[in-house]
Amino acid sequence: MLASPPTARNAVNAIRTARYPERTSRRLSPPQHMSSLLLDSQTVEKHGMANGFGSGSSLVPPNNISSRESSPPGPAHVQSQDFYFADGNVVFLVERTLYRIHRSVLSRNSPFFRNLFSIAQPADAKEAEGSSDEHPLHLPHILVEQFDAFLFTVYPSWRPITHTTEALINILCLATKWEFATTRAYATEMLTSRPLSPTLRVELARAYDIPAWLLASYVEMARMRTPLSDSEAERLGLPTVLRLGRAREAILRQRFKVALEKPKTDFFDIPIGRHIGCWQSMARSLYLVLKNAERGGGTDEDLVEEVLAASRRLQDEEPLCDSCSNSHLFRARCARWLDVDGDAVIVSSIFNLQ
């Protein structure tokens, strides 16, 4: 829905500044350090280094996000190699590149553009913005590579396109901004399987209203042995940092409870009476792992694997039976014993997630 009165001039301004409408009654506000869409250029560089993209990362969702500003209209314009169609009927200018594309393609996929193009043009339509190369519709604060990546998802292509993680974030940003539901769903699905840091995933989930990403990210951070960096804490915000602290303490208490208390029901998938010695050995291994973590030792690797490694070191003193020594059975039984799935219940309760 357009926030401006239905005039051609206001419509042009709307395409540059529109935000995706609220999808729920509870607004998910972007982090304070982020721009109106996601990140400023300084935060972008920190994200790139923190998430393996390198200091030269182009992880820069549009709108006030790059020191490389889009250039104002000028004589040195070039036509896009991929998206300048002879039969196109709307012209956009991104940096110094002209895009001549089809209103029908945009309108078919986006209610925002459908509403935009339904607004009456002035009497002298030849001079209307977007009508020609001489009068393009200028999109500031968007880079050519960002707009290209977005259009490759909007226009069907005979060649397979593999988008980088940075490109997918930019696609998500523009698809949300301009209400391309199918493109937004594609970017969300692809990013779900990409190895983003939990901090960045939380930022994206908040900025673009993707609540399904929040719980898994909070659980991952609550399980970490290492403290949050100052940068991560700032990006997440004080309320989230405090809740993560409570979640870590609750999970650690539950782990010690498992290590120190005899199971009240069958151990693993078999009666505990047959494996009381195995349980005692594994409980001691878990206790040693937890105490080492309390002292700042260990890593953020899989807890079950750490317990298995500790049990192997104790084999001479407290050997496991042949069945429990089987690494495949050990992992399955130990995961059930530790109730690692219960971590999500703890975190969900602390963060009031459904």
Distinctive features:
four-stranded mixed β-sheet; Potassium Channel Kv1.1, Chain A; mainly alpha; 354 residues; 50% helix
Can you characterise this structure?
- The protein is mainly alpha-helical and 354 residues long.
- The chain is built from 16 helices and four strands.
- The protein folds into two domains: 184 residues, Potassium Channel Kv1.1, Chain A (2-Layer Sandwich), CATH 3.30.710; 113 residues, no CATH class.
- It has a four-stranded mixed β-sheet with strand order 1-3-2-4, covered by helices on one side.
- The chain is elongated and about 90 Å long.
- The relative contact order is 0.09.
Give me the secondary-structure topology:
Elements: H1 8-17, H2 41-50, E1 78-84, E2 90-94, E3 97-101, H3 103-109, H4 111-117, E4 137-138, H5 144-154, H6 165-177, H7 181-192, H8 198-207, H9 212-223, H10 230-236, H11 238-260, H12 276-294, H13 303-313, H14 322-325, H15 327-338, H16 342-351
- Strand runs, count: 4
Q: What is the count of DSSP helices, taking H or I runs of 4+ residues?
A: 16
Mean pLDDT: 74
Distance between the termini: 29 Å
Please identify the top-level CATH class of the largest domain. Answer: Alpha Beta
Total count of domains: 2
CATH superfamily of the largest domain: Potassium Channel Kv1.1, Chain A
**Which shape, going by the Cα principal axes?**
elongated
Q: What's the quick description here?
A:
This protein has 354 residues and is mostly helical. It is built from 16 helices and four strands. Strands 1-3-2-4 form a four-stranded mixed sheet, covered by helices on one side.
